[in-house]
Protein: Four and a half LIM domains protein 2
Organism: Patagioenas fasciata monilis
Amino acid sequence: MTERFDCHHCKESLFGKKYILKEESPYCVKCYENLYSNTCEECKKPIGADCKDLSYKDRHWHETCFHCFQCKNSLVDKPFAAKEEHLLCTDCYSNEYSSKCNECKKTIMPGTRKMEYKGNSWHETCFICYRCQQPIGTKSFIPKDNQNFCVPCYEKQFAMQCVQCKKAITTGGVTYREQPWHKECFVCTGCKKQLSGQRFTSRDEFAYCLSCFCNLYAKKCAGCTNPISGLGGTKYISFEERQWHNDCFNFTSK
């Protein structure tokens, strides 16, 4: 007696008929399509066993139904983009939705890198420094007068130069005798300590902290031998080419 070979679902004989294996069980074409075929997103009909099933994000199409939502051209083996569940060829997507480059005014194609700043978009190769014309990319930049500058070019063109080190002052800074200094460059001529935020004085246009100035230039008290700074209203007494702090001058008459 011949062994039976039936459809796993309807039990009809499959001898001499086309069948499909599903998890090692045979099905006639009709049962397989009714049970397992995907429904086409476009025509809403089953995608039969003899048809090519194209899928994207758990959605399925007949090969002939897989086309651009707008121009209807086939998307088979072509790049495409999705917008609000609709599939679009790159041309239609670009014309409808892609940003326009603020520099060259051309479309920024899907999948290409773009730079964005304050609501405007650029091709990566179009987002360049106004001065050196080199692409800025992901580097820091500074906008000025509706133009973008890389940091080195901005510093060369606009930033004040420290009178001491001749480099750009990008933040903060100190002005002394109408000249700009970095805080770290504005130091005492004697001990080299920073003078920013400290009391200081000057001699021959050189700045000194009070301690260095007193040690180098202040007169010495004939009583205590400490410097008489003369700063901040300090009072002293001078007699016969000698000087005393007020508190150190004791006059004794004979």
